[in-house]
Amino acid sequence: MHNKLVKFVQEIYETKEFIPLHAPTFTGNEKEYVNNTIESTFVSSVGKYVDQFEHQIEAYTGTAKAIATVNGTAALHTSLYMAGVKAGDLVITQALTFVATCNALYHMGAEPVFVDVSKVSLGLCPKALHAYLEDNAFINNDGLCQDKATKKFYRAVVPMHTFGHPVELDELIAVCVKWNIALVEDAAESLGSFYKGQHTGTFGDFSAISFNGNKVITTGGGGMVLCKSFDDGMHTKHVTTTAKVPHPYEFFHDEAGFNYRLPNLNAALGCAQMEVLPKFLQQKRELAQQYSNFFAGSEFTFFTEPDYAKSNYWLNAIICPNTEMRETFIKETNAQGVMTRPIWKLMHRLPMFENAKRGQLPISEWIESCLVNIPSSPVNNG
Ligand SMILES: *Cc1c(COP(=O)(O)O)cnc(C)c1O
């Protein structure tokens, strides 16, 4: 299978050179817009591209307010802060995620709690979440959710739309409402992914998107906080821009803010990338379809979008019959210049999170042992 895949991927990308997992593509107005920032000298935190980029994301996702940040981790940090997460709180997320999800809450002084993922989405499983809370939590007299053993507060649930596949949002929201816990979506990987027609990242009060170099579109480095309410959005902008009270010359800051602003230079790249996003998505979905056909009837399962969703297919993934075949597949394809890789190590295997509270994680462990990501850049055949 690995040799057949190498040939197949080389034909798709029309090259025998190294084929990465996901490479940025610049075929639009990127150079022109970036040059404009240099010519105007507005390369830093002020400039028209930041506002324009935020408005493009608002129009595309339908969110009330989008706030550009310096990267996706900063967007997530801000989202958790805005959702009211405080030091000593518990934040429930997936063990099957990229480390940034946990880093963001860790640096708020909160502790991660790991719950299993769903086979359908590879993201947080509503049933596992409910079962975990039934076993470990109670609602106090103020209506807040606390841990039975430690009395710490469960302040947020952070599902992650793995590889762009939307989680089961209706069911997750129902659990969050029942237990009175805020929903914050880690939508870092899911720009262009929709749940029942609504863009991911617009369900939680606050959500984070990433524009890192390997994501669907890139600003070099960058992120965006999506805010469900306009007023929360205005406050988020204030907080990410040092919380300075507007004044022609005086410096007065009314709360402890962040400097998480996205430079205009990066936003310029983002404006151009947003113009080609629909084309990228179409190309990526066509590629996913080709892979799906290729693996059909084999021992390898190509992971397809849940039936309630339209996915951006950020990273294509296959599930191997067992770990041994997974190892061979990864070794052989990489040796032939086609990049493939396993999914992230589960978060509780990392030294800083090894003592984190967690539920049973059978699906996460199975996916960790058998999944492989395969090349996923949009295919540009002119
Ligand atoms: C990429 C990513 C992030 C963070 O993005 P950066 O822009 O690299 O900080 C967060 N969470 C997940 C799941 C990601 O894939």
What string gives the helices and strands in order? HHHEHEHEHEEEHEEEEEHHEEEHEEHE
Global outline: globular
Structural class: alpha/beta
CATH topology of the domain at 30-274: Aspartate Aminotransferase, domain 2
Strand order of the largest sheet: 1-11-10-7-6-2-3-16
Whole-number mean pLDDT: 97
Under the CATH scheme, which class of the domain at 30-274? Alpha Beta
β-strand percent reads 15-25%
The poorly predicted ranges are none
State the total count of DSSP E strands: 17
| Terminus-to-terminus distance | 29 Å
CATH architecture of the domain at 30-274: 3-Layer(aba) Sandwich
Q: What's the CATH H-level homologous superfamily of the domain at 30-274? A: Type I PLP-dependent aspartate aminotransferase-like (Major domain)
State the main characteristics.
single chain, 382 residues, alpha/beta, Aspartate Aminotransferase, domain 2, eight-stranded mixed sheet, four-stranded antiparallel sheet, 37% helix, globular, binds pyridoxal-5'-phosphate
